[in-house]
Amino acid sequence: MAQIPTKMNQTRYSGVASALALPTELQRTAQFHFEFQKSFLLFCLCRMPLSCQLSVLSWVDKASCVSQVAEQLMTIAYENGVNLFDTAEVYAGGKAETERGLNRKHIIEGLRSSLQRMQLEYVDVVFANRPDSNTPMEEIVRAMTHVINQGMSMYWGTSRWSAMEIMEAYSVARQFNLIPPVCEQAEYNFFQRDKVETQLPELYHKIVPWSSDDYLASCGIITGKYENGIPECSRASMKPYAWLKEKIVSEDGRKQQAKLKELTTISEKLGCTLPQLAIAWCLRNEGVSSVLLGTSSPIQLAENLRAMEVIPKMTAGIVTEIDHVLGNRPHSKKDFHQAH
């Protein structure tokens, strides 16, 4: 479960996100979740045991995706083994935020408000979404330790923090006998690889990279719909997503579309769609436990869920073939030592 920035105003928000295990009786009356959400749902596929294999993140995004559709998607996800759901203040473009930042006041009040809206006593994990340079690390770790000790959350994790920032939080926790973060949410996809493949492995013995998000999938970039321009009614055609349109029509964006077109040949050879290939590619990394992806319709969700069937097909030869097309495989310390 990972935070995906809306970038409505090109702002890098710091805030609080939470993940919870949703019991059947709450899932059957999921409308409590949608009083403030016309939701675009993000589903998480992972390498965990079945009970934790899938999870859902609700991201306020499309007005056309009304609460009834969101409830339908949650039901389908739940019936397919999803029992973790993720939400955050930032998902309404900042409108749902009580404050910004990771100061003690915001962490405690923000989580308490989220619990009240969701009619829950606690969440399983509370995430610090993006680092906050204006708040001392000790204050952040102490606040997270407080909400855990108060029974508001079981654990806390980081989202899109650098390896150095994660280590600082870990060191502060050890120094003052506080609770360290247990997981990191990192952006990981075909074109964003360095952090997950070269930086986070150094932390695997201390912190679990519990989930990563396929940002390109969530923005619809890898579906191929932007190959010939910006279709009407697509997210990139919406005014708040001008940043996405600029990204797609840029030189780098055109190069990415060309590479995705090449990758389509590989997906066809495996008998899957390009989004399914992208998801399976992320999960083939033994350091990745889960992948967040976006869906706004039952049909799209069904397609995404079938990505699990593609994982066994991700042989060393296929991965090498994908690396050859992408041409961006980062070199790890392991590669350096093998070369010498």
From TrEMBL:
Q: Which UniProt keywords apply?
A: Cell membrane, Cytoplasm, Ion transport, Membrane, NADP, Oxidoreductase, Potassium, Potassium transport, Transport
GO MF assignments: oxidoreductase activity; potassium channel regulator activity; transmembrane transporter binding; voltage-gated potassium channel activity
Provide the Gene Ontology terms for cellular component: cytoplasm; voltage-gated potassium channel complex
Q: Where is the protein localized?
A: Cell membrane; Cytoplasm
Q: Which residues form the NADP-dependent oxidoreductase domain?
A: 97-317
> Pfam family of this protein, just one?
Aldo_ket_red
Q: Which InterPro entries is this protein grouped with?
A: K_chnl_volt-dep_bsu_KCNAB, K_chnl_volt-dep_bsu_KCNAB-rel, K_chnl_volt-dep_bsu_KCNAB1, NAD(P)_OxRdtase_dom_sf, NADP_OxRdtase_dom
* GO BP terms: regulation of potassium ion transmembrane transport
Name the reaction it catalyses: a primary alcohol + NADP(+) = an aldehyde + NADPH + H(+); a secondary alcohol + NADP(+) = a ketone + NADPH + H(+)
Which topology term describes how it sits in the membrane?
Peripheral membrane protein
The family note in this entry says: Belongs to the shaker potassium channel beta subunit family.
Q: What protein is this chain from?
A: Voltage-gated potassium channel subunit beta-1
Query: Which species does this protein come from?
Result: Oncorhynchus mykiss (Rainbow trout)
Upper taxonomic lineage: Eukaryota, Metazoa, Chordata, Craniata, Vertebrata
